[in-house]
Amino acid sequence: MLRTNWGHKTSYFQQNRWGSFDCKLCNMAFATQGKYFSHIKSEFHLNRLPKEQQVIQADTKPVVFVSIMEHHSNILPWREAGAEIVVIPEDQTGKVDLQFLENELSKYRDYPYKVGSFSAGSNVTGIVSDVREITRLLHSYNALAFFDYAAVAPYVKINMNPSKEESIDALFLSVHKFVGGPGTPGVLAVKKSLLSNEVPTTPGGGTVYYVTEKEHTYLLNPEEREEGGTPDVVGSIRAGLVFQLKEAVGEDYIHERERSISQKVKERLLKNPNIQLLGSTEAERIPIFSFMVRCGGKFYHYSFICALLNDLFGIESRGGCVCAGPYTFSLLGIPYELSVELGNALNEGYDLFRVGFVRVNFNYFMSEETIDYILDAIDFVAENAIWFLPQYKFDMERSAFMHRAYSTKEGRHKARKWISEVTYATGEMSFPSYDSENLDNLGSYIQEAHKLAQNIKENRYAHFYMSDNTLEIPAQLEHLRWFILPSEALTFVKGRNIQLSTSESPFCPKNYSHMPLEPKLPEPLPTPKRKDKKKNPLFPKVPKKIIKRVMNAVNDFDMIKEGDRILVCISGGKDSLTMLHALKQVQRVSPKHFEIGAATVDPQVPEYDPSPLKAYLEKLAIPYFYEQYPIVELASAKMTKKVSLCAFCSRMKRGILYSCARREGYNVLALGQHLDDLAESFVMSAFHNGLLRTMKTHYVNDQNDLRIIRPLAYVRERLMKEFAEEAELPVIVENCPACFAAPTERHRTKLLLASQEQLIPDLFSSLLRTMKPVMSGNFEEVNTKRPRNEEEECQECVFNPV
User: Fold this and answer.
1) Domain 253-429+439-493: what homologous superfamily?
2) What are the residue boundaries of the C2H2-type domain, all occurrences included (predicted)?
3) Most exposed of 166, 347, 656, 677 (fewest Cβ within 10 Å)?
């Protein structure tokens, strides 16, 4: 039980407009606060106090009713205060569900402390709440009515006392959102009857009347008592001017102008099938619009759309959940379970998965030309974003998409304006001028953007390469990916038949009364025709960038000798098929004569079926050996506990290939590991074993009767992926029989290197120079050689040095 002192000092205090200190209980006025304090200690005052003072149940929580559309600042303080929060959903029109609110108020009818704290309008959708109706309903159940006017205060009438039943108990707003408002303080307007606490919320300087070394007394004037510290005099004056400006423009004019703009913008955005407008389009609103841009079954990341609007058109917009997380999940149709999964991905450092949207505001002081320009820019971005996405990358540190030109320290340094460049050496403030070329009119920027898009369509990012962004995302998080990646956009732009419509987002935004249009997929560009040579589907020409690297590796490590018979190990993946065609091309131009055959090991598991390769190799007229062996079944019967299934499988397949080569008279075995594989093995060996090792590019087996080569040792994986897609090779998905595509240590290392390559573009060139000394010859000079049974681990999982 907590006994209140309100009746002693503050319950009967009021300060009138002339500044006197009045005691309502005794109906007396005093010139100073000191005289008032003397009065409340007198017998005259004490004898008039009620005999039973108010008693408060300390263990009774206040109940606070909030809507789903609240800003975080109208949710988190109540949570942190320990209040019981009741969330009121929206109805079919997108407004606060008044019937649901009344049901909840009835449920908590007997609670002594009830507060309704609602937004007067959403900062996400601009939908305006029925403040009067909500207030009347709250008061009918003896609940206080608080309203957050931050989003709509600049554009609507504010009336705290339209009638006795509809009088607002408190409202709060941010003046910096008004025209001319930046640099102003926030405003709290509250009924004096609610400010009966003796101790201010934040005690400190400016809140006290008198302080001794043992005692202190606070000011009675609540406005002074609750605003400690040095007052923001300049900001407060500016806030007054801001409200004066709003009154001078006229609230009726502002309301009509905002209504007209809202209707125009809404109609325009709804016409574009790629734009997913969030929130109800039927409810009354101010011109605040939030939307997402579709790309097939997924969306463009809001951060990229914001960046593109800024970089192409100089339009500032906001991306994210705009401090309204619960409302965002509701609008996007994200259930709680999915929100938890997304939150876990963020906690693991994958901030790219943070959901959100793009928000744009249109204000009454904008000209029609400016409004049309912004709408034209949004339309352009919604229809042409795919062509620009490869130029951007997601910066994990800044949690935002950035143009690649500004993704490095050097690029950002050139783009920024620095305070350190300001000087006062001449006795006045001076700084360098920045050249900026302005076009004649806003429409010219739209025309220039179309020219840029057309140029991209013609050139298709020739000689432009990037790492596969999908490699940066763990397989277990792929089902959460709601956005397309720059590498996917590049593949589409280059005409590699990517199906943007087949992959779906894990959520679908909430649908109100309007039916969304079917998203318009970007039209793929026609595949460029080669004028010089006719395409050969069986023997496609391997690009020079691959052949050159293969030839360099073959020559550097003396992989091919006169008269060699090379057995190419084919799994059906992009790497081994690329190696086969590359060696066939090398065979035609090499001065050394050698033969080529191919072999595949079928482990006889349902997850991996390489049998379609038989027909393909027959068409190529290459000697082909299809070795079937129940490796996994044999492992369950023969494998010892000391050996992992990965090691057993790897050793068995290698042994089968050795036997095939000996049986068919081949003296060289060609394996398809590429530069990415070697780099990953190098890093894993250093991390896990403390040894500088990687796969050898050319070595002799223990029996000294077979040589093993890796012709792709200098070739990046992405080059082979591009070639396989362009040549339409019959790629077979190969899963390790031990884990069947489960996340592996190698995959984690791949993610690590991919993230570092974003920061260090020449990473793999540096790693290649580092690895060269350990890619050939014996390891005795570098490290002590370990027993073979510890070396032959599966390359999919840990480390395979051979």
Assistant:
1) Aspartate Aminotransferase, domain 1 (3.90.1150.10)
2) 21-50
3) 347
pLDDT per position as a tens digit, 305-351:
999 999 999 999 999 999 999 999 999 999 999 999 999 988 888 88
More confident site: 577 or 21: 577
- Report which of 154, 98, 101 is spatially closest to residue 126, judged by C-alpha positions: 154
Q: How many CB atoms lie within 10 A of CB 204?
A: 9
Measure the N-to-C terminal CA separation of the chain; round to a whole number of Å. Answer: 77
pLDDT, position 783:
43
Within its chain, how far is the Cα of 293 from the centroid?
14
Q: Which two tokens stand for residue 384?
A: 């042409």
For residue 632 the two structure tokens come to 């996994």
Distance (Å, rounded) from C-alpha 264 to C-alpha 320? Answer: 24
Residue ranges of domains in the chain: 60-185+232-247, 253-429+439-493, 544-791
Lowest model confidence (mean pLDDT) among 2-16, 72-86, 99-113:
2-16
Q: Which pLDDT score, from 0 to 100, does residue 639 have?
A: 65
Residues ≥6 apart with Cβ < 8 Å to 575: 672, 673, 674, 712, 717, 720
CA distance 101 to 109: 12
What confidence tens digit (pLDDT) does each residue in 393-413 have?
887 667 789 888 886 677 777
Does an H or E element contain 318, and which?
strand 318-320
How far is Cα 299 from Cα 321, in angstroms, rounded to an integer?
A: 15
User: Residue 534: its pLDDT value, please?
Assistant: 52
Site of tokens 């884990």: 739
Q: Is residue 152 within 8 Å of 129, Cβ to Cβ?
A: no
Rounded CA separation 58/1 (Å): 6
Among the listed residues 335, 285, 330, 332, the one whose alpha carbon sits nearest the alpha carbon of residue 89: 330
Superfamily grouping for domain 544-791: HUPs (3.40.50.620)
Q: 708: buried, middle or exposed (CB in 10 Å: 19+, 13-18, 0-12)?
A: buried
Chain centroid to CA 139: 42
Give the helix ranges, DSSP H, for 401-471: 409-415, 442-459
544-791 and 60-185+232-247 share a CATH fold: no
CB 384 within 8 A of CB 293: no
Integer-rounded Cα radius of gyration of the chain: 36
- Residue-wise pLDDT for 65-75, tens only, equals 999 999 999 99
Neighbours of 699 (CB within 10 A): 19
By the 8 A CB rule, do 206 and 226 touch? no
Q: For residues 361 and 123, what is the distance between their CA atoms, to the nearest angstrom?
A: 10
CA distance 228 to 218: 11
Fold of 60-185+232-247: Aspartate Aminotransferase; domain 2 (3.40.640)
DSSP helix, strand, coil percent of the chain (3-state; round to 5): 40, 15, 45
| pTM, entire model | 0.73
Tokens read off for 166: 């509809």
Q: Which of 758, 737, 767, 436 is nearest to 602 (CA)?
A: 737
CA atoms within 13 A on the CB side of 610: 25
Please enumerate in sequence order all residues whose Cβ is within 8 A of that of 83, keeping only pairs 6 or more positions apart, or say none: 61, 62, 63, 64, 115
